[in-house]
Amino acid sequence: MLKYLFEAHFKDGSVIQQTQGDVSATDPTKSAFYDVLQRQDDLKAFGLFSDESPNTYAVSLETGVFEINGIPFAVQDPSRPVPEDVQKRIVYFRRVTRHFTGDLTECAVDMLFHIGFQCTDASGKNHQYTIAVE
């Protein structure tokens, strides 16, 4: 069971919400994130929400600004802001760590949810900005 589910907001006002089943609405062999990637050029904002936690985490693909519970912050050096006119591409993945006892019985699972964006500057250099949520 996923602690956090994503919600993707698009420029036309439509929203894709991940469910616990995590299945694409257009291709049942793929995850819900596949649907987001199919519309990446129109993606406005991407966030994580949970029924277990009061906190929400989001990133604007228009401005590059992150938010926790609606409070904005930046992860990049503020003296070198990401230009708004560059194409920002969504970054989302889960890092799963499984812990085992000496007899190889799984005893715990830790999951980090990473969200953010990457972009290419005028010189062709790729930059990636993400946050990780436990």
Task: Give structural notes.
There is one protein chain. The radius of gyration is 16 Å and the shape is globular. The longest helix has 7 residues, at 32-38. It is built from one helix and nine strands; from the N terminus they run E-E-H-E-E-E-E-E-E-E. The protein has one helix spanning 32-38; strands at 5-10, 15-17, 43-49, 57-60, 66-68, 71-73, 89-100, 106-120, 126-133. 5% of the residues lie in helices and 46% in strands. With 134 residues, the chain is mainly beta.
Q: Output the strand order for the largest sheet.
A: 2-1-3-4-5-6
Shape: globular
Helical segment tally? 1
Major sheet description: 6 strands, antiparallel
* Computed structural class: mainly beta
Order of helices and strands: EEHEEEEEEE
- Helix percent band: under 10%
| Euclidean distance between termini CA atoms | 14 Å
| Rg calc | 16 Å
Strand content: over 45%
- Average predicted local confidence, pLDDT: 93
Number of strands: 9
Low-confidence sequence ranges? none
Overview features:
134 residues; 46% strand; 3-stranded antiparallel β-sheet; 6-stranded antiparallel β-sheet; mainly beta
Helices and strands in order:
Blueprint: E1 5-10, E2 15-17, H1 32-38, E3 43-49, E4 57-60, E5 66-68, E6 71-73, E7 89-100, E8 106-120, E9 126-133
Antiparallel strand pairs: 1-2, 1-3, 3-4, 4-5, 5-6, 7-8, 8-9
Quick summary of this structure?
The chain has 134 residues and is mainly beta.
